[in-house]
C-alpha cells in the first residue's frame, strides 16, 4: 500500500498511526505540500482532483477520503482490533469517527492557518474547536463513570485513533489542554497502545 | 474579588502519578504535577531556561523535565540535570518558583499568590471527585447562579439528594472552574444526573454571559 504523505499534515499522521497500530506496512511517498503545494500539481490532481492529502493506493484502488482510508485499513487489519463486533458498539464507534473526520476537520484547519499559511481566522476556529473538545471531554467523563476509558467502549477503537491527533496537536494553534482533564487522561492511555507513534508536534517522551 | 490563600486547582484523581497539567488561577500559570511516589507539586509554569511551560514537559520519578531541552528539576524546584552538559554540576541558583501545595477533600490546592507564606490547609472530609467544570464567566456570576454562599474557596450545596462540595477557582477575570466532589459511597446511579446538572449549569451561566 502506498500513502502519499506529508509528515506535518495531521490527516496523514492519522493514517500512519492506524497502520502502525495494526502492524501494516505503508510505502510512504513524501509530497512537498508546504511550501511546494505539490498535491495541487497536475500529476497529483490526476490522482485526486480535490488536491488534498492523504491519498492511499492499494493496487487498483485509490482512496482520497480520510474516513474511507481509515475504515479500509481497519478492515484490512487481520485482527480487525479497532472495529467493535457488536452492531450497536460499532455504530457508536462510527458516530465518533464522524465527529473526528468531519467536525474536527476544524482543528486541522486551525492548525493549517497557524502553522502552514492557510487562509482563515485562527481565533474563531480555535473557539469552535474548544466547543468540540468540551463535547468530547463531557463524553469521556460519562464513559469513565461506566468504567470505559475510550469513546466507544473499554478498549481503543478506530474512532479513538482518529480523534487523538486533533487533541494532541491543538497547542500548535494555541488551544491548551488545561480545561480538558478527561482528554488528558485519555490521551495518556492512547499512548499505551501497542504500535503507537508520534509526529512532529507530539512529544515522544515515554 | 481576588482569590488568595488556598485555591483548588484540580481534582486529585485527574492528576495521576507521573503526570503534569497546566492550570491557571487568577491569571497565574501553574504546573500541577504528581511524582511517581504520589506526592503533588504546584510550581510556576515556566522553565527558567527559555520560559517554556513546564506543563508541556514530563515527569521522571521525582523530577519534572522541560520539553524544550530536558532540564530536570527535583521536588525542591532546583535544577539537577542539564542534558546538553551532562558533566556540569548545575548551579543551585537555577530553580523554579514553587507554590504552597496541599491535598484535601479530593482536590489539589495551591496557595496564592506566588511567594505567600502558606497557612495550614484545613482538613476536609475525604470526597470523591466527580468532574472539573470550566465556565466562561466570572467566578462571582457562577457563584450567584449556584445560589449558594461561599466559605473560603468552598461551596456546599445539595442536588438530587447528594451533598455536593464544590471547590471554586477563578481562572481569570472572565473564566472560572468548579471542582465538584461527592461524598464517598454516592451511588453510581446518581452520577449521570449530576453530570447533566453540570452541563446544564455551564450552558445556563454562559448563555447569561452572552446576553450581558
Automatic annotation (TrEMBL), chain A:
Keywords linked to the UniProt accession: Transferase
Domain spans labelled GST C-terminal: 86-206
GO MF terms, alphabetically ordered: transferase activity
Matching InterPro entries: Glutathione-S-Trfase_C-like (IPR010987), Glutathione-S-Trfase_C_sf (IPR036282), Glutathione_S-Trfase (IPR040079), Glutathione_S-Trfase_N (IPR004045), GST_C (IPR004046), Thioredoxin-like_sf (IPR036249)
Chain ranges of the GST N-terminal domain: 1-81
SUPFAM superfamilies according to UniProt: GST C-terminal domain-like, Thioredoxin-like
Pfam family membership, one: GST_N_3
The name this protein goes by in its record: Glutathione S-transferase
Automatic annotation (TrEMBL), chain B:
MF annotations from Gene Ontology: 2 iron, 2 sulfur cluster binding; iron ion binding; oxidoreductase activity
Source domain of life: Bacteria
Residue ranges occupied by any Rieske domain in the UniProt entry: 6-110
InterPro entries: ARHD_Rieske_2Fe_2S, Cholesterol_7-desaturase, Rieske_2Fe-2S, Rieske_2Fe-2S_sf
Protein keywords: 2Fe-2S, Iron, Iron-sulfur, Metal-binding, Oxidoreductase
Record-linked Gene3D superfamilies: Rieske [2Fe-2S] iron-sulphur domain
One Pfam assignment: Rieske
PANTHER family: 3-KETOSTEROID-9-ALPHA-MONOOXYGENASE, OXYGENASE COMPONENT, IRON-SULFUR DOMAIN CONTAINING PROTEIN
Protein name listed in UniProt: Rieske [2Fe-2S] domain-containing protein
Source organism per UniProt: Celeribacter neptunius
Amino acid at each position: 500500500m502506498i500513502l502519499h504523505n506529508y509528515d506535518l499534515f495531521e490527516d496523514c499522521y492519522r493514517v500512519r498511526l492506524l497502520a502502525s497500530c495494526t502492524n501494516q506496512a505503508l510505502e510512504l511517498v513524501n509530497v512537498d505540500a508546504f511550501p511546494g503545494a505539490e498535491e495541487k500539481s497536475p500529476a497529483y490532481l490526476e490522482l485526486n482532483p480535490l488536491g488534498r492529502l492523504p491519498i492511499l493506493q492499494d493496487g487498483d484502488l485509490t482512496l482520497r477520503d480520510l474516513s474511507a482510508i481509515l475504515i479500509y485499513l481497519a478492515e484490512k487489519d487481520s485482527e480487525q482490533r479497532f472495529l467493535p463486533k457488536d452492531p450497536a458498539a460499532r455504530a457508536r464507534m462510527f458516530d465518533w469517527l464522524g465527529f473526528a473526520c468531519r467536525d474536527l476537520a476544524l482543528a486541522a484547519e486551525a492548525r493549517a492557518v497557524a502553522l502552514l499559511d492557510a487562509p482563515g481566522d485562527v481565533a474563531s476556529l480555535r473557539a469552535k474547536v474548544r466547543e468540540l473538545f468540551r463535547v468530547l471531554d463531557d463524553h469521556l467523563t460519562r464513559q469513565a463513570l461506566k468504567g470505559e476509558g475510550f469513546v466507544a467502549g473499554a478498549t481503543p477503537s478506530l474512532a479513538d485513533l482518529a480523534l487523538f491527533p486533533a487533541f494532541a496537536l491543538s497547542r500548535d494553534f494555541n488551544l491548551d489542554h488545561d480545561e480538558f482533564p478527561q482528554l488528558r487522561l485519555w490521551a495518556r492511555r492512547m499512548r499505551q497502545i501497542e504500535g503507537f507513534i508520534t509526529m512532529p508536534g507530539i512529544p515522544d517522551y515515554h | 474579588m481576588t482569590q488568595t490563600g488556598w485555591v483548588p486547582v484540580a481534582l486529585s484523581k485527574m492528576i495521576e502519578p507521573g503526570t503534569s497539567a497546566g492550570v491557571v488561577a487568577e491569571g497565574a500559570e501553574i504546573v500541577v504535577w504528581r511524582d511517581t511516589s504520589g506526592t503533588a507539586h504546584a510550581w510556576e509554569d515556566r522553565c527558567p531556561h527559555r520560559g517554556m511551560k513546564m506543563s508541556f514537559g514530563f515527569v521522571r520519578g521525582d523530577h519534572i523535565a522541560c520539553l524544550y531541552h530536558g532540564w530536570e528539576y527535583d521536588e525542591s524546584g532546583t535544577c539537577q540535570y542539564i542534558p546538553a552538559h551532562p558533566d556540569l554540576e548545575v548551579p543551585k541558583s537555577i530553580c523554579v518558583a514553587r507554590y504552597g501545595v496541599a491535598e484535601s477533600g479530593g482536590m489539589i490546592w495551591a496557595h496564592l499568590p506566588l511567594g505567600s507564606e502558606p497557612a495550614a490547609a484545613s482538613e476536609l472530609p475525604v470526597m470523591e471527585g466527580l468532574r472539573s467544570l470550566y465556565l466562561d464567566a466570572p467566578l462571582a456570576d457562577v457563584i450567584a447562579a449556584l445560589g449558594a454562599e461561599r466559605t473560603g474557596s468552598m461551596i456546599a450545596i445539595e442536588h438530587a439528594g447528594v451533598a455536593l462540595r464544590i471547590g471554586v477557582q477563578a481562572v481569570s477575570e472572565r473564566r472560572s472552574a468548579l471542582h465538584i466532589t461527592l461524598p464517598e459511597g454516592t451511588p453510581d446511579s446518581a452520577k449521570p444526573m449530576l453530570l447533566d446538572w453540570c452541563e446544564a449549569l455551564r450552558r445556563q451561566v454562559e448563555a447569561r454571559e452572552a446576553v450581558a
